[in-house]
Amino acid sequence: MNALELPVRRLIDEGFSGGDLSVADAVVAPDMAEHQDFGPGHPAGPEGARRVMASLRRAFPDFALTIVDVGVDGDVVWTRNVATGTDLGGFMGHPPTGRPIRIDVVDVFRVRDGRIVEHWGVPDRLGALRQLGHVGRPG
Predict the structure, then answer these.
(1) Band of residue 118 on the pLDDT scale cut at 50, 70, 90
(2) Among 4, 25, 111, 136, which has the minimal tally of Cβ within 10 Å of its Cβ?
(3) Does pTM surpass 0.90?
């Protein structure tokens, strides 16, 4: 494993999958730039990462993010992941359905001095909404 992968794997394995929100303090830089759209007022750094993990845990108490592929180039780490969970808390403003989801997620991280300093995330939110029955297939 490349040393740049370690903070990324810890955030995904311990934080997103394991539910340990405190791992963000160890692996996310205080001023990490977040490029995934979480809406206005979303905080930077570890607090922002903790909020995302907590919101996913509220929606999907059994949430897991599994790394399928990893690529490293310079100070950038790419992961292709599979996210799974059961909607028991409601998702994106919709009431809980009790249904499971399984979606693809692509994440890109810039790592410096053992900490994540930038993140871009591309989760298949439309796929999740379709699996939960909130939107139908396009005509």
Answers:
(1) very high
(2) 136
(3) yes
